[in-house]
Specification:
Blueprint lengths: L10 H4 L3 E2 L4 E2 L4 E5 L10 H10 L3 E8 L8 E8 L3 E2 L2 E2 L14 E7 L1 E8 L5 E7 L3 E4 L3 E7 L5 E8 L7 H6 L3 E6 L2 E6 L1
The structure holds fructose -6-phosphate and zinc ion (ZN).
């Protein structure tokens, strides 16, 4: 029997259930990111410190499903990114490159409205793509990706990626993204950091 065959995988790995309002999947492990985890992500450091003094708010959570790990296998995660702003910058995810750089990812928007900021590692070319309910974004390999909630409801989405993708947060922690997404005249707009 192949280690990743239909008969080797338990039913709970073949079928799961999404709960969009809470952004959870059955009783799968859920990682929460609070404002204190996002130090350095926002351009306006003063506004960040001020908001943190008030409350270490929950910004987003990711629930992961990892049915099998190995060549050809897939993992997926359900993200819920809450609405809000630090100064005029919308709530966002930390953002990362995949440790296995060639690994791509498919993002499927399920609820809410936002954007995805992509930045190619070598050239640092940026793309800001509308992302939300019924939108699918393909994130190529070698591309840093960050999710941004520009709406007033939680942004809920699935990220589906090769099991070997992994996360590399270091380049973003060191250099951040070149671009920021801010609210200006009641619209979201991209600016150089
Ligand atoms: C997985 C992936 C998503 C993110 C999630 C949270 O490769 O891209 O599931 O992990 O959007 O963002 P980060 O990981 O940047 O905190
Ligand atoms: Zn990813």
């Amino acid at each position: 029997m192949h280690p990743f065959s239909l008969s080797s995988l338990a039913k709970e790995n073949l079928e799961t259930h999404l709960d969009l309002p809470s952004g959870t999947i059955d009783h799968r492990p859920r990682v929460e990111r609070r404002l204190s985890d996002l130090k350095g992500c926002f351009r306006n450091h003063e506004a960040y410190e001020e908001a943190l003094q008030k409350e270490d708010a929950l910004i987003y959570a990711v629930t992961s499903v990892e049915p099998a790990t190995g060549d050809g296998q897939m993992h997926y995660g359900l993200g819920i990114l809450y609405p809000g702003k630090i100064g005029n910058e919308y709530y966002l995810t930390k953002g990362h490159l995949h440790a296995h750089r060639v690994a791509a990812e498919v993002y499927v928007g399920l609820q809410g409205e936002g954007q995805m900021l992509l930045e190619e590692e070598g050239t640092r070319e940026s793309r800001l793509l509308p992302f939300g309910k019924n939108t699918v974004v393909y994130v190529p390999g070698h591309t840093a990706h960050r999710t941004i909630n520009t709406g007033s409801d939680p942004l809920v989405y699935l990220g589906i990626y090769p099991s070997h993708a992994g996360h590399d947060y270091l380049p973003i922690a060191q250099k951040n993204f070149r671009m920021v997404v801010v609210e200006k005249d009641h619209r979201s707009t991209m600016e150089i950091r």
